[in-house]
């Protein structure tokens, strides 16, 4: 293929690029949102159980790659709505995420003292560079799901922000016990009277109330809510990242017997079913599966 042919096939505008990404995600929903999280759960559990040799065990590149693939439906779904205001808001939230994580690692506030036990990729001052990819989509997924579930009640700012913050906190009820069981991070300096939830101190959830509130307000101010709802209405894959979350972290918690987090993950699954986001098109096998040539 000549250089001119290649240039002719490349999108010539932002709209064409967005349409091409939509088609790519839509045509690979099963691979992205079922195949990847199922395999991710198996690989992470196998790593934690010392069943995988180096360099496969907790391979940072595979973790970041898998996370980016599973995030792609959300990223592609939101991309057409990224105005200058939205970009500035997400940028500010990214800076906040790094700052609050650095504060947590170095001072123990607001989550409690913890340290990373698994290499999650390059770090700066002890904070993984990929942190925004791990954190911000969790908040956006909760925000979008709650907009759909609340309906007209989402117009009330206090109701909207309160429910979304609670949903983000519920996501950490699923995430943190699974991550601690895997050894992603570990809490210390807990004290003999520390109250733990599957190895996670309750102070962590108090910290998440702070982080979630700031993040939810930032995203709420950054994006046009009506535009988000319109995009959600015509983009069936936009919450597939939340499907991946339920499969990945629900499966990991089930393996380790963390049944309350499993139940909370299942509640998110019920929410997806209620909003018709876990539909037959998602479960339809692609013509060419990843393991076939």
Automatic annotation (TrEMBL):
Signal peptide: none annotated. It comes from the Archaea. It is an enzyme of class 4 (lyase). Coiled coil: none annotated. The lineage of its organism: Archaea, Methanobacteriati, Methanobacteriota, Stenosarchaea group, Halobacteria. The keyword tRNA-binding does not apply. It comes from Haloferax volcanii (strain ATCC 29605 / DSM 3757 / JCM 8879 / NBRC 14742 / NCIMB 2012 / VKM B-1768 / DS2). GO terms for molecular function: lyase activity. This is Bisanhydrobacterioruberin hydratase. The chain crosses the membrane at residues 30-52, 58-79, 86-109, 129-150, 162-185, 205-223. Keywords: Lyase, Membrane, Transmembrane, Transmembrane helix. Its EC number is 4.2.1.161. InterPro entries: BABR_hydratase (IPR053540), CruF (IPR017823), CruF-like (IPR007354). It holds the Pfam family Caroten_synth. The gene is cruF.
